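Trying the structure run again after the queue cleared.
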Amino acid sequence: MRAHLRTLLVIACTVGLLALFLRQVDLGAVAREIGEASWLELVLALGFTALVYVIRAARWRVMLLPVGRTRFSTAFRTTVIGFAANSLLPARAGEFLRPYLLARREGLSATATFATIILERLLDLATVLLFLAAFVFFFDPGMSRADSATYAAVKFGGTLAGATSLVGLVVMFILAGHPERLGQVVHRVVSVLPARLAQAVARFARTFAEGLAVMRRPGPLAWSLLLSVPLWLAIAAGIWLVSRAFHVTMPFTGSFLVIALLTVGVAVPTPGAVGGFHYAYRVAATAFFGVPNERAVGAAIVLHAVSFVPVTVLGLIYMFQDGLSLTRARDLAEQERHELDEASGREEEPEPGDPGGPAQGRVAR
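Done. Tokens:
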């Protein structure tokens, strides 16, 4: 019943966001805008999209160094499969499928491999927030088209985001070298929370603590952070090139603001980020850069296709070569999710100074 309710909620959310995205839109004008887009910039944007997944695979290999050495081909292949699964399957299945496949192929700890996915997402968030802060501090001429109240809100948000991300990165480096401090904090927090919430927090902390154990050597963590910069610059370049293809007047730094809004849009759990991604780009383009509505809608549709279609098609090809159907991929992701939950549930509550508990010594499945 809960699964059916979740499916209905996802469908309702997707339909609602698409309706909001296409509200008061002349679809004929949108088609004309797409037809008049510059294909040279779109081809270049496709190239940067490919580069994004190359850098993602390279960064993941660095993050996995404390767990074990991996082949780039395996990291790239499983990364593409994981992102394709995220586009086609519910509940972020690719986030569980990707570490499961890599751990199985390289003989690594599945739990430790999954923990690097959590750290990967935290590094991505920190980088996006730093980019937003950079946009605020290096004034973007495009913002002159927004009203002063809107710009003031963005400036405040960017300042807060930059400060938060810097503090978060410092905390991650400290905990990477001294993970026992996480156990002390969690022990104090769960003692004042309701039972079910305390259990959820403790479970997340155990998984995160394993990730910190994986990254106990700050070197790989630092290299991972450094690789996050060209990774998100490549994403920004793709956004900027698609915007230019639609004759949107946007400086390159303006894509940093768009990235921040798109991050919020893709956080909505719709298949392939449909609806949330589109609406976030439309808001950014029309509200902050004065783009006509139909042009913003056309650019959003093409940007989504450039960002999601190539990796999804390549991921399906890899899955076909491996004899892996979507149904099987979904079952493997659910199996991995279930085994991780069971493993966390079997562990005792973390004691101060031992946030990871028995998880630290788990071997590859």
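The chain has a mean pLDDT of 81. Worth checking whether this holds up in the mutant runs.
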